[in-house]
Amino acid sequence: MALALIACQTLTDQPSSDSANTVAPDLTDCRTIEHEMGEAEVCGQPQRIVVLGPYFLESLLALNVQPVGYADHVPFHQGDYTNPSEQIPYLGDRITQPLKNVGLAFQPSIEAIVNLQPDLIIGLDDFSEPYENLSSIAPTLLLDYDAPEESLRAIAKAVNRPGQAEQLLIQTQQKIEKAREDFVSLIATYPQMLLLTSSSQLQNIRLSNSAGLCSSLVEELGFQSAASPGFDNSRPLSPTPISLEGLSDFDDADLIVLLGDDYREIEDVDNFREHQLSNLKQAWSDNKIAQSLNASKAGRVYFIPAYLCYGLPGPIGTELYLEELQEQLLPSD
Questions:
Q1: Are residues 151 and 7 part of one domain?
Q2: Which pick of 43, 76, 115, 127 has the fewest CB atoms within 10 Å?
Q3: What whole-number distance in Å separates Cα of residue 314 and Cα of residue 159?
Q4: Is the pLDDT of residue 124 over 60?
């Protein structure tokens, strides 16, 4: 940390060509933003933003703001993001400039962040790096993953675009309400949905609860969460593990959605979707218990990458997840 602070002081005393081109903050235009660790003051329009995690990169891009540094939650790519569209899943094609890689979202490189001379850092409130280490470099917002709307508003206030955030929230809700109308007939016939998360080999099967976008969106559309007798599906905690044998307790489910959640040996985002789903589909097809369920016999089992709703809980992820549900569950015209 001492070396990082020395490096920061050196960079301050001897600006690089990048810093020479940075617009000085307007100290007459300052906002105080509340976040999980207290308050941060941001002045002017931030020009050099470092964002830690796709869940906040999503919000920044939805507000049409480009960062200069990024730390992913999963090590999809080593080295700097020289070609983001091929190196950052789902969000890369919205990035218009190369990004510096500053490590992992929950364990970023302080040295890499210092070298970027950021004027704003955005990250998760639950990771290993002390807040003081980041806030000594630049104004820092540490936000709650489980509160995407509040996080979007905080980020929008920091980048001077609060009105745009409210418009995004309105538009997202309008899309959900429109989709709810489209799902009315399907839900009237098949109201019970079993929402599962699993790795590619049907290991670590988890039953999604009502917390988080994965479950909350399907419930907002009107589906009822399938549950076995005596099972509490309302706990606002992490998804609950169930065994393969336990799948038979959910045979009343009208349809099943499996969220593929396998990040082993991920090196190329070009085949990200296939990597998440192809082996899971095969494992489900080969498993006798899975195939004995009524939803399997009726052909009402669907597969969606978990990253869409777990990794991107904001406006972009909501739209992409909604499109997946519509495309797969609704009959085509």
A1: yes
A2: 43
A3: 17
A4: yes
What is the phi/psi pair of residue 35, to 5°? -150, -175
Split at pLDDT 50, 70, 90, the class of 212 is confident
Structure tokens at 330: 């609704």
Locate 238 and state its tokens. 């992490």
Decide: helix, strand or coil at residue 319: helix
Domain that holds residue 151: 2-160
pLDDT at 256: 96
Cα 205 from Cα 197, distance rounded (Å)? 6
Q: Which amino acid is at 312?
A: L
Which amino acid is residue 162, in one-letter code? P
| Category of 81 on φ-ψ map: left (φ > 0), alpha (ψ -120 to 50) or beta | beta
Q: The tokens of 134 are what?
A: 């980041």
Are both 284 and 301 inside the same structural domain?
A: yes
258, 280 in Cβ contact below 8 A?
Answer: yes
Q: Which has the higher per-residue pLDDT, 236 or 209?
A: 209
